[in-house]
């Protein structure tokens, strides 16, 4: 999806009423229905001209309507005509100078009127213009400012659009991991009923894979196709062209041609000019692969003319190079001479554009490093301040007299001895705790890779790919925290949620999971012992829920209680008696390991670290599950550093 389409989509969504001027009875201008100078007249004439693709006339009528709306101080009219006129200047007439001037004018009006939504849309528009100029860092600043305002007014769909714009920017400079994050954020902000938004998010996620041949790319395109029962809907031509391109890259031109002929109506394609050139280029490549070079060259020439209108140097050079192949294979190399000037003109532009993108990527990475260094500097200054306060206190204590000094020296010597002894015990305890972690990980990995192998054997490649992506993400998160026996609360919960999703991924009968997380814990920076909760969640699933024949439900409740976090894990499984009869060795090993881990935490000074298990029964005395209560200490800064 291009930035042009995205910006127009925002306008249509956020100002739907402004495109139906006749429905506003409060506007006195509408009473002059018989006047050729009325706002209503200009609006209808603009719509008619645009439908006939006469964009010069469209711009004329929109400009007249804008001037009259400003004269009558009719703000809805100003937004309607202004937004649409800016789009016509930019997307249809390629008059970027007029578009930029009008955008600045509208930005000031929206700001003056206090219309935050209108102001945000103008900021996003500015960001799009900076992307066209390859000013990526400046564009990112506009997007971030717009996103901040959208969050303040709690507009989730507008936030979703801005994340899409940021994702497209990151794709443009080659930061595909950042692009995926932005598109996933956009997807999470949309509702399941928002078909247009979800379709757009899936299409963009396919782009962000950076590999047209990957199964992940096809997977997201297929998910988007669910929302394209009518191929003429917005972005559907782009979608089917991308699917066709996937088969072109797979060297399956006949399959690609079948998709285009089935879903794309060339009689209507003019209505989708942003898709037109890309589809023409795809057709040129298809006919090149089937050795129909005459058709191939014809489509390439049409695509080239459209790309030249937009000034897209990358697309122009790509089309020229592909067209050269068709000319050579057709034995018509002499026909390339008229296009040599295009190559000479656009190639330096392409080189300059690529250079700017690389510089933008470097600058973006430098900004991230600067932020990290700034945080480190603040932390260092904080430690220095604490040290300074400590020295001041020590100076005051020395004034208490000779007796106090002597007692202090004796106490200090004893303290040093105790600290050394305590640090030695801590080192031994930490070593044991880390070794216990290595015992637990292989058990989970064995089950996960078995599930992955099962998907592969069943030839469910898309599921296998998605499952592998989730698993690798979980492993990466665990390994990133492997240097410490503690973990941030948010990271620990994220690991638990990832583990449950992976387990659910391999089960035919899914487990219903309910989370109750204290509002005081959400977004907190608390630190807790790591890998304590997950084994009990694993026990609840493996030994409690999986053997059960009824609907499986797992409830995880987390509550903040002063200096500790209380976690309650409740399942409606078969209960402990079932497992005791069968003497599950894995269950006893996991329980013994956790007991040792809790004992070590006690050695570290956290006496309130406890686990209690309660068997649940029905009124008839039959087992109906298990409830585990875990009390975890909140790790303080001083203990964490030890």
Q: What does the model show?
A:
The chain has about 650 residues and is of the alpha+beta class. Among the domains are: about 1-115, no CATH class; about 265-360, Serine Threonine Protein Phosphatase 5, Tetratricopeptide repeat, CATH 1.25.40; about 420-640, Heat Shock Protein 90 (2-Layer Sandwich), CATH 3.30.565.10. It is built from 24 helices and seven strands. It has helices at about 5-15, 40-50, 55-70, 75-90, 95-115, 115-130, 135-150, 155-170, 175-190, 195-205, 215-225, 235-250, 255-265, 275-290, 295-310, 315-330, 340-400, 400-455, 460-480, 490-505, 535-545, 575-580, 585-605, 635-640; strands spanning about 485-490, 510-515, 525-530, 555-560, 565-570, 610-615, 625-635. The strands form two sheets. The chain has a five-stranded mixed beta sheet, with helices on one face. Strands 1-3 form a two-stranded antiparallel sheet. The longest helix is centred in the middle third of the chain and has 59 residues, at about 340-400. The protein is globular, with a radius of gyration of 32 Å. It starts with a helix and ends with a helix. Mean pLDDT is about 80; it is low at about 1-35.
């Amino acid at each position: 999806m291009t930035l042009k389409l995205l910006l127009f989509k925002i306008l249509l969504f956020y100002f739907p009423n402004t495109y139906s001027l006749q429905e506003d009875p409060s506007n006195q201008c509408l009473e002059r229905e018989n006047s050729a100078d009325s706002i209503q007249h200009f609006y209808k004439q603009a719509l008619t001209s645009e439908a006939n693709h006469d964009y010069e006339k469209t711009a004329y009528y929109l400009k007249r309507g804008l001037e009259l709306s400003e004269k009558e101080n009719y703000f809805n009219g100003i937004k309607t005509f202004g937004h649409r006129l800016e789009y016509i200047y930019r997307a249809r007439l390629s008059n970027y100078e007029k578009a930029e001037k009008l955008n600045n004018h509208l930005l000031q009006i929206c700001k003056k009127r206090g219309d935050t939504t209108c102001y945000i849309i103008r900021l996003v528009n500015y960001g799009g213009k900076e992307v066209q100029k390859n000013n990526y860092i400046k564009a990112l600043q506009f997007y971030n400012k717009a996103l901040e305002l959208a969050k303040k007014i709690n507009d989730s769909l507008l936030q979703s659009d801005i994340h899409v714009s940021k994702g497209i920017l990151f794709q443009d400079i080659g930061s595909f991991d950042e692009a995926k994050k932005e598109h996933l954020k956009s997807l999470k902000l949309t509702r399941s009923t928002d078909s247009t938004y979800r379709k757009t998010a899936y299409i963009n996620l396919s782009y962000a894979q950076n590999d047209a041949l990957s199964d992940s790319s096809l997977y997201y395109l297929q998910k988007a196709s669910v929302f394209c029962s009518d191929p003429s809907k917005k972005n559907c031509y782009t979608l089917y062209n991308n699917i066709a391109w996937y088969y072109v890259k797979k060297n399956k031109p006949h399959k690609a041609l079948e998709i285009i002929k089935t879903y794309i109506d060339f009689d209507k394609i003019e209505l989708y000019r942003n898709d037109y050139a890309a589809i023409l280029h795809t057709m040129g490549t298809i006919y090149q692969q089937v050795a129909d070079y005459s058709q191939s060259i014809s489509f390439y020439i049409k695509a080239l003319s459209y790309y030249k209108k937009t000034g897209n140097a990358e697309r122009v050079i790509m089309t020229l190079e592909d067209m050269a192949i068709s000319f050579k294979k057709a034995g018509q190399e002499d026909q390339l001479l008229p296009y040599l000037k295009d190559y000479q003109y656009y190639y330096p532009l392409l080189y300059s554009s690529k250079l700017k993108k690389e510089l933008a990527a470097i600058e973006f990475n430098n900004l991230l490093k600067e932020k990290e260094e700034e945080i480190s500097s603040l932390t260092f200054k904080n430690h220095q301040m604490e040290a300074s306060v400590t020295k001041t206190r020590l100076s005051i204590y020395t004034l208490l007299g000779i007796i106090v000094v002597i007692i202090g020296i004796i106490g200090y010597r004893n303290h040093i001895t105790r600290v050394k002894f305590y640090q030695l015990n801590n080192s031994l305890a930490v070593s044991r705790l880390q070794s216990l972690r290595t015992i637990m990980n292989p058990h989970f990995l064995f089950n996960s890779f078995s599930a992955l192998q099962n998907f592969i054997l069943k030839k469910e490649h898309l599921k296998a790919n998605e499952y592998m992506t989730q698993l690798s993400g979980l492993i990466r998160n665990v390994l990133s925290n492997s240097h410490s026996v503690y973990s941030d609360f948010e990271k620990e919960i994220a690991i638990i949620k990832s583990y449950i999703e992976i387990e659910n991924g391999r089960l035919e009968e899914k487990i219903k999971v309910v989370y109750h997380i204290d509002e005081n814990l959400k977004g907190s920076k608390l630190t807790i012992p790591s890998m304590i909760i997950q084994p009990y969640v694993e026990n609840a699933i493996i030994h409690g829920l999986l053997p059960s024949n009824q609907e499986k439900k797992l409830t995880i409740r987390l509550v903040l209680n002063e200096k500790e976090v209380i976690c309650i894990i409740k399942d409606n499984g078969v209960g402990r008696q079932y497992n005791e009869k069968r003497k599950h060795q894995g269950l006893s090993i996991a329980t013994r390991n956790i007991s040792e881990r809790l004992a070590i935490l006690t050695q570290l000074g956290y006496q309130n670290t406890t686990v209690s298990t309660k068997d649940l029964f029905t009124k008839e005395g039959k087992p109906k599950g298990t409830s585990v209560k875990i009390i975890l200490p909140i790790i303080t800064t001083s203990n964490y550093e030890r």
